[in-house]
Amino acid sequence: MRPSVKQRDRDERFPAEEIKKLAELGCCGMMIPEEWGGPGLDTLSYVLMLEEVARVDAAMATSLSVTNSAVQVPLTKFGTEEQKKKYLRRLATGEILGSFCLTEPAAGSDAAGIQARAVAVQRVGSGLGARTSPAPAFAPAADAGWSGAPLGTPSGDAYRLNGTKTWVSNGHVAGLFIVFAKTDPDAGSKGITAFLVEPGFPGFKVGRHEDKMGQRSTPAVEILLNDCEVPRENRLGEEGQGLKIALSALDGGRIGIAAQALGLAQGALDESVKHAKARRAFGKSIGEFQAIQWMLADMQTEIEAARGLVYHAAWLKDAHPGKLGAASSKAKLYASEMVNRVVAKAVQIHGSSGYSRESDVERMYRDARVITIYEGTSEIQRMIIARELLGK
Question: What percent of the chain lies above the pLDDT cut of 70?
Answer without folding.
Answer: 91
